[in-house]
Structure formats: C-alpha cells, structure tokens
C-alpha cells in the first residue's frame, strides 16, 4: 500500500526475493495498523499520522546518508504532489482503522488496483478493455457488500445509536478513499521513477509528510502516556521498515507479479482481529473481500499479459 517503484533501467527480476520481501512488508504494515487501532481510543488519528512520519524520518536520513543520496531534484512539484496523496492515504487509513473492525478496514483499503485502472485513463491515456471494466465493477460490488454488511443479504442490521453510526459511515468512506489516494500515489511514483531513485522519492515523502502533518499537530495534540509513546514509536519504526521492504521488493521484481502477495494482509487482519478484539469475519465481509481480491488479481493478470505482448 506505500511503496516506491525504482526507475525501469535499474529493474532486475528476482521473484523469490521480491515475494519474500513483500510478504514481510505486508506483515509490517498490518502490525502498524494494529498499533494504530490500539491507540485509536486515546490518541487522535492525525497525531498518529505525524509520528508515523516523524519517527521514520531519522532512519530514512541515515539510509540516505549511507547511500550518499542528495535531495537535489528538478521535480519538486511531483514530490510535493506525491507527499500530499501519501498523507491523504495515511490519514484515511489511520482514521478508518480506529473506527472499523480490522478485517473490514483492511479489505476496503485494497481497492487500489481498481482505482489505478480508472485513474490511468486521464493520467496515462490508457483505455481499459471490457475485461478490466468488468473487474472494476466486481471490485466495487465487493466494496458495497462489505459496507452494507448483513443488510446486503436481506438481514436486519441494528445501527449504533446516535453519532456512532455516522462515525462508522465516515470510516467506510475513508477506507475506500485510501484506495483512491494510494492509486494516485502509485501513478505519481511511476512518473517520478523515470528520473528519480526510490531512495530520493521516499526521503522527500518522509520530509514533506512530517512537515505537513506537523502543521496540524498543535490543533489535535494529546500528551501520550509512556506506553502510548512506545506504541507511537512502534508505528513509525514498523511503518518505515515496511516501506523499506516494499521499496526493495519492487526493486527486485515487477510490480504486477508481486501484487497477489500483498493480499496476505487480509489474513493477518483476520488473525489479529480475532486474537486481540475477538472479531469474527461475517459472511458478507468474506464475500466482499473475495470479490475485491478477485478483481484486483484479475486486473494484475491483465496487466502482466499486456506487458508480455
């Protein structure tokens, strides 16, 4: 969900290495989401967004210094746009994680391939065929199945009283919007990677996201306890590790070939949700997630076939 793709001329295809790294990256991001959900009742989600970037920044700077990477760039507007979409995606993810069951939240955020297909029309001038349009339709139906819950199958859902119902609806919208923002980020990274290294892209992202989220921090600040500080540090460190692993994974193998492995996040979400919060996936959640995954995998399959041609 936050990877940077290297320039095409540096690509080497090692599917085993890439798959191993992306599986570890997916686990790291799942753990970060769990930490955010644990903090959701006491720490504002925008404060978590700030510390996600702030505590990751020193590690990214050290990596940049080790590789003698400079921040010199002629494409600052592109980096700024990429940071804005990345900040929006992170904000949507953290907010939805605090108000939705973990399994539903993770399933809804995996609509990125669907939105990439749609945004590629105005951004890249692509013209999806009937197969990919069908996959997009199935993916959106999967989103509806999860959002409507048991009501989709004709059962009666008793809504939470008062404002809680609206907060949950906002959580569903934010989870879906995460996919849209992440898709925008993917397309921007594709454009930047033609001239910029993955390390430069991630460094600019970390710096700009820290500055932008820091402007909001005084308005939402809640002083964390000692335990909460540890969890916030964990969000930054684990998120940074996940980002580095995914960046290296996409430097090792083609993006389209690694896509299926990222859906293991749904398995981690189901496991963590059951162990920590006692969440048991319902039939509509399983059905909707299956439709979203099937749509994403089919879009990736068509992408691989097109590249072979």
Please describe the structure with a list of short key phrases separated by commas or semicolons.
0% strand; globular; mainly alpha; disordered N terminus; 309 residues
Walkthrough of the structure:
There is one protein chain. By secondary structure, this protein is mainly α. 77% of the residues lie in helices and 0% in strands. The chain has 13 helices and no strands. It has helices at residues 15-39, 45-54, 57-66, 76-99, 102-109, 112-124, 130-148, 163-192, 198-220, 226-252, 255-262, 264-277, 283-308. The longest helix is centred in the middle third of the chain and has 30 residues, at 163-192. The protein is globular and about 50 Å long.
Question: Could you give a quick summary of the protein structure above?
Answer:
The chain has helices at residues 15-39, 45-54, 57-66, 76-99, 102-109, 112-124, 130-148, 163-192, 198-220, 226-252, 255-262, 264-277, 283-308.
Average pLDDT rating: 83
Detail the poorly predicted runs.
Answer: 1-11
Distance between termini?
Answer: 27 Å
Shape: globular
Major pleated sheet: none
Order of helices and strands: HHHHHHHHHHHHH
Structural class: mainly alpha
Q: Specify the helix fraction band.
A: over 70%
């Amino acid at each position: 969900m936050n990877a940077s793709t290297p320039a095409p001329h540096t690509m080497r295809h090692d599917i085993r290495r890439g798959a191993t790294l992306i599986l570890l990256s997916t686990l790291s991001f799942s753990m970060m989401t769990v930490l955010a959900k644990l903090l959701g009742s006491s720490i504002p989600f925008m404060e978590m967004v700030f510390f996600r970037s702030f505590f990751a920044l020193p590690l990214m700077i050290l990596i940049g210094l080790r590789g003698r990477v400079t921040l010199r760039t002629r494409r600052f507007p592109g980096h700024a746009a990429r940071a804005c979409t990345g900040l929006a995606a992170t904000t949507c993810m953290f907010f939805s994680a605090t108000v939705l069951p973990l399994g539903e939240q993770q399933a809804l955020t995996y609509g990125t391939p669907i939105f990439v297909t749609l945004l590629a029309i105005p951004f890249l001038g692509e013209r999806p065929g009937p197969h990919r349009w069908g996959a997009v339709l199935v993916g959106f139906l999967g989103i509806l199945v999860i959002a409507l819950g048991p009501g989709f199958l004709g059962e009666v859902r008793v809504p939470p009283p008062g404002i809680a119902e609206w907060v949950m609806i906002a959580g569903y919208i934010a989870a879906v919007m995460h996919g849209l923002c992440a898709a925008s980020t993917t397309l921007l990274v594709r454009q930047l990677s033609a001239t910029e290294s993955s390390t430069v892209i991630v460094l600019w992202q970390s710096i700009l996201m820290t500055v932008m989220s820091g402007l909001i921090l005084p308005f939402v600040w809640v002083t964390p306890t000692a335990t909460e500080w540890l969890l916030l540090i964990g969000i930054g460190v684990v998120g940074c590790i996940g980002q580095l692993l995914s960046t290296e994974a996409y430097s090792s193998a083609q993006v389209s070939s690694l896509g299926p492995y990222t859906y293991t996040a749904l398995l981690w979400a189901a496991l963590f949700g059951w162990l920590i919060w006692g969440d048991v996936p319902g039939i509509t959640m399983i059905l909707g997630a299956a439709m979203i995954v099937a749509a994403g995998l089919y879009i990736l399959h068509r992408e691989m076939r097109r590249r072979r041609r």
